[in-house]
């Protein structure tokens, strides 16, 4: 009875299995989902291909927790309360291809987080409390294709953070607290196809921030704090076909903004898919108005204002010239009269 309480038989054989888990021998799957576990259970079969530990009560991943699991390809540890990854806690998983650590309480990654994870292709770290990422924490993920860092508390990113991720094709940084996109942050991401940057606090995008992204098909910037954008920033996107999401920003609608969007939409490979949803925040008289509904009115209004000012200035100049000429004629007339009077007095 002691043996039965500690181990359970697999559904298709007699291989030992951790207590409270289900082991499927034919497919090498171990299901420990939502079992109230506080640690990685011992006794996981060495041939396990997929291990599901999601929905438990683990608070940390200890050193060498996965020792001997050479065949593990998929590790799911989401929806726990993990706040700490001990050094080298994952380093034995050299053939791991997918790692899900989403919906935990991680505030940081250890510098050696990616050590020996050379086969990893997909990494989910979304919905944690990550704030600052060590620039070396991702350096061994040379084969990573998909990285999800969404809905953390990331304020800024070191320019070296993604330097090793040259095969990345999906990156989500949505729902963080980024305020500036700097040049060279994505300098090695020529294969990146999807970039989610929505719902941050981005106010500044440096001119060359998107230049390396030759394969980009979707760039999401909705829900940030953009007031204006530069046409040159998006013109640097030398791609085949890129869809842009730019709605839900506090746009200041003026002639310059309308011109920028007009130019972007005339670039064959760029498509602002939510242009009809772009709403003005300023100036106050245009707050709540759709930019698309104004057509070229903003530039026309600006042109009229400039024209009125120009005409006013021109009239003022003409008035001043006329007055000056009149004064000159009066002066000449007075001089003639004075001369005549003097001559008349002398003759008398």
UniProtKB/TrEMBL annotation:
<dbReference type="GO" id="GO:0038187">
    <property type="term" value="F:pattern recognition receptor activity"/>
</dbReference>
<dbReference type="GO" id="GO:0005768">
    <property type="term" value="C:endosome"/>
</dbReference>
<keyword id="KW-0967">Endosome</keyword>
<dbReference type="GO" id="GO:0005886">
    <property type="term" value="C:plasma membrane"/>
</dbReference>
<keyword id="KW-0675">Receptor</keyword>
<dbReference type="GO" id="GO:0051607">
    <property type="term" value="P:defense response to virus"/>
</dbReference>
<dbReference type="InterPro" id="IPR032675">
    <property type="entry name" value="LRR_dom_sf"/>
</dbReference>
<keyword id="KW-0812">Transmembrane</keyword>
<feature type="transmembrane region" description="Helical">
    <location>
        <begin position="304"/>
        <end position="322"/>
    </location>
</feature>
<dbReference type="Pfam" id="PF13855">
    <property type="entry name" value="LRR_8"/>
</dbReference>
<protein>
    <recommendedName>
        <fullName>LRRNT domain-containing protein</fullName>
    </recommendedName>
</protein>
<keyword id="KW-0325">Glycoprotein</keyword>
<keyword id="KW-0677">Repeat</keyword>
<keyword id="KW-0732">Signal</keyword>
<keyword id="KW-1133">Transmembrane helix</keyword>
<dbReference type="InterPro" id="IPR003591">
    <property type="entry name" value="Leu-rich_rpt_typical-subtyp"/>
</dbReference>
<dbReference type="GO" id="GO:0007249">
    <property type="term" value="P:canonical NF-kappaB signal transduction"/>
</dbReference>
<dbReference type="GO" id="GO:0002224">
    <property type="term" value="P:toll-like receptor signaling pathway"/>
</dbReference>
<dbReference type="GO" id="GO:0032755">
    <property type="term" value="P:positive regulation of interleukin-6 production"/>
</dbReference>
<dbReference type="InterPro" id="IPR001611">
    <property type="entry name" value="Leu-rich_rpt"/>
</dbReference>
<keyword id="KW-0472">Membrane</keyword>
<keyword id="KW-0433">Leucine-rich repeat</keyword>
